[in-house]
Design brief:
By secondary structure, the chain is α/β, with parallel strands linked by helices. It has 13 helices and 10 strands. The strands form 3 sheets. It has a 4-stranded mixed beta sheet, covered by helices on one side. A 3-stranded parallel beta sheet has the order 2-3-4, covered by helices on one side. Strands 5-6-7 form a 3-stranded parallel beta sheet. The structure holds ligand V47. The site of ligand V47 has 23 residues, from strand 5 and strand 6.
Length: 344
Amino acid sequence: MSRISFDEALKMYDMDFFDLAQMADEKRQELHGKKTYFNINRHINPTNVCKDVCKFCAYSASRKNPNQYTMTHDEIMDIVKDIDSRGIKEVHIVSAHNPNTGLEWYLEVFKKIKTAYPHLHVKALTAAEVHFLAEEYNKSYDEILDLMVENGVDSMPGGGAEIFDEKVRDYICKGKVTSDQWLEIHKKWHQRGKKSNVTMLFGHVENREHRIDHMMRIRDLQDETGGFNCFIPLVYQTENNFLNVKKDITANEILRTMAISRLVLDNVPNLKAYWVTSTVNLALIAQEFGANDLDGTIEKESINSAAGAKSANGMELNEFVQLIKNSGFTPVERDSIYNEIKVW
Ligand code: V47
């Protein structure tokens, strides 16, 4: 099939629901067959003190969430010790933009983790955090990225991309990393031979054109670098934030968006249905709309659960595996960069 244009992608929203699902499923089957990937991971969110104000965010400390916290390195290392003893293979570390901790607090903890647990994969620092650290400590992106590599960060998560359209971005998260800067940071990361993910926050004030535009910008960068492992559409959670969108996006629109992204992003190998924001039930159905990855067990999650997602305590491994099997797919445990570890 030839490359899908902006207009063609937009028209796909009006296709018959099941025809669209079938097209996305054919692409999924061509790439991954019936395999659904997941990993055994743990999210750590070390501070919720944030210099920026994103209207959609319920996690950062604010009027709506007055309980500030910042973990010490010892507290973080206690968590890592515990998860390592239980065989967890990835730590996904994302913080708010805390101007009070110093640069070392952000970076040295990765070295501590890598030194004590060299086999653990450290996925850490969104491009929004990289931008914040560069500005706050008067460094270039290159300097921050080099420090990340030196301190043992293995890959970058896809957070902070939100919606690339500048007008929407200005409305929902003015002052944070811009779209061009977000893409530049990932480009530089990829040029270091490293991999990352990319998200899209949808279901708030954006429209379908904005989503397609977002996908097109990702596809263009991926053509240049090939560094994105995975696209992750994040469904906006409505509670405890300042965006004040009351109407939930429909399951129909979520699944269509997933399917279209599978088809448009022909150069990004994996599509993640992040059960935390889509609900587990919809994530399982999304497997038939192009999704081949369900993230992982997560254990503890603070960012999306603060906004209403039912993810605060993660998911139990056996239940997770059984749900994938019962929906007709093959659960395949993967590592953080998509090497297969075990077919369950
Ligand atoms: O960047 C914040 C989003 C992201 C809300 O790379 C919200 O593997 C929904 O990026 N409703 C952080 N979403 C999470 C993230 C992520 C998650 C899982 C895997 C990976 C990966 C990355 O959460 C933020 C922001 O876009 N977010 N508030 C909200 N109200």
